[in-house]
Design goal:
By secondary structure, the protein is low in regular secondary structure. It contains 1 helix and 4 strands, in the order ββββα. A hairpin with a 2-residue loop joins strand 1 and strand 2.
């Protein structure tokens, strides 16, 4: 799980009343709602959830190489 700033909420389900107007790497900076843009080994890279609907996530989109970084 990653967050872009120390004050940003953790990635996850977020607030259903939020408009999710500003996102950074697929995560709403206000409430933490994650769109599960990057799925590796069956889990979301940003929030870690494994409860993903494969039908809703397909067709797969190509992920830019600069977004695929190893954790240190």
């Amino acid at each position: 799980m990653t967050s872009s700033s120390p004050s940003a909420p953790p990635a996850g389900f977020g607030d259903p009343t939020c408009l999710h107007a500003v996102r950074e790497s697929g995560v709403c900076v206000r409430c933490g709602h994650c769109v599960h843009e990057l799925v590796l080994n069956g889990a979301c890279y940003f929030c870690g959830t494994t409860d993903l609907d494969p039908i809703a996530l397909s067709p797969k989109q190509l992920i830019p190489a600069e977004q695929l970084l190893r954790k240190k």
